[in-house]
Write a structure and sequence with these properties.
The chain has helices at residues 10-17, 21-42, 44-53, 59-79, 83-101, 109-137. With 142 residues, the chain is mainly α. α4 runs antiparallel to α5. The relative contact order is 0.12.
């Protein structure tokens, strides 16, 4: 990994050094998974229907697994304990879910446009989880 020789502007370092930046970033990174997991937990029938819609069987088992990965993985990332494990679980989950839910290569027209955008946005999330794990293991500011 190469490092830039150009220093951050002082105001950027001030934001990055603020004690709440890293915890808030972890909460923001996992927010969609926390909301998704809680929504599925409190509306389990809809979670099962979602899994069936994507052809996953048995759908109830996949709904439970999805809820567990979203909530436990998020908790590990937010807490910062075993962040690598939580980030890895959410990254693998996101990769699988993206392949299942957004197969843009099988679509046409506006549907393909939307699925392509979602697919590559999810790749960005996967990269963010890798960066969070790297940041934690290789030089966290706090």
């Amino acid at each position: 990994m190469t490092h830039s020789t150009v220093a951050n502007p002082g105001w950027v370092d001030s934001i990055l050094d603020w004690r709440w930046t890293w915890p808030l970033a972890r909460v923001a990174l996992t927010s969609a998974y926390v909301i998704g997991g809680l929504t599925k937990l409190f509306n389990f029938d809809a979670a099962v229907a979602e899994q069936a819609h994507f052809g996953l069987h048995p759908p109830a088992l996949f709904a439970v697994l999805t809820i567990l990965v979203e909530l436990v993985g998020s908790a590990l990332v937010i807490a910062g304990n075993l962040l690598w494990l939580g980030a890895g679980a959410l990254a693998v989950f996101t990769a699988l879910a993206t392949l299942i839910a957004h197969p843009f290569w099988n679509m046409a027209g506006h549907e393909r446009f939307l699925a392509t955008n979602a697919f590559f946005e999810h790749l960005g999330l996967i990269a963010a989880f890798a960066i969070a794990a790297l940041f934690t293991t290789r030089g966290q500011r706090h």
